[in-house]
Amino acid sequence: MSAVIKQRPALERKKSIVQELIKLINKYNIIGLIKMENIGLKQVQNIKKKLKGLAVIKMAKNSSIRLALVNSGKPGLDKLAEYIKGPTALIFSEISSFKLMKIIKENKTKSYAKAGMKAETDIVIPAGNTGFQPGPMITELNELGLKTKIVSGSIWIAQDTTVVKAGEEISRKIALLLTKLNIQPISVGLDLTAVFDNGIILEKTDLDIDVEDIKNKIKQAYTTTYNLSVNIAYPIKENITQLITKAYMEAYNLSRNTKLILPETLGELLLTAQNEANTLYNALKERNPNI
Q1: How far is it, in rounded angstroms, from Cα 33 to Cα 256?
Q2: Domains in the chain and their CATH numbers?
Q3: I want to staple 89 with a disulfide (CB 3.0 to 4.6 A). Which of 59, 226, 268, 285 is the partner?
Q4: pTM for the predicted model, two decimal places
């Protein structure tokens, strides 16, 4: 009997949390899942401050989040529950999903690696001075595949060396070495894994867009299209001045080469004729000085 009584407050709390989540779900059009691994409470509080007025973060147990997503009444939202893996929180917003992803990415910080973590990208120890004096550290570096040399009484790493490849697990030895070398290879912050955006589910790969890369591709496409339009003489607002200038120069050169007399070419044709006459006269005079 006492066990049942103890369960009731817990069930009531869970019900209250689920209802609160459903209320937020029905208030916002953008509902996202945030991965909460390797992030501390202080970092969460800092990001909440930066997102104030832009988004609301609500932490709860995965079971409560699933219940809220499945029972919210929003068509298709239940599918978002399939993306819940590991410690998760919900984020609610009205700003663009892509803008939300950009803000979250920009607010990540670097941190030291811990044993068991997986490398996000290749972890490279750069060539240069380690700051350590010769001793046991040389053996430690060499055991991990790093080539070393002694310069002015200090251990130097001879060349850039990849010690962990992207996706691989970071060992305890590597984690300790990276800390000693003051290398922070881990990005710490919120990780937006999936978003329900006005009825559509967008995954992290859909949202993680390289804006600069897109800008460069648009510029390249514009340049290619512009050059094509000029080369095939297809008139548009952007190239009309260049096409007219090009047409004028081609017509001018044609009339000059065919010696077609026009007001624009008359002066140059007369000058050319005079030069040719002078050249002919000088050639004849060399053969016959009496001319």
Answers
A1: 72
A2: 2-108+189-209 (3.30.70.1730), 123-187 (3.90.105.20), 214-287 (no CATH)
A3: 59
A4: 0.59
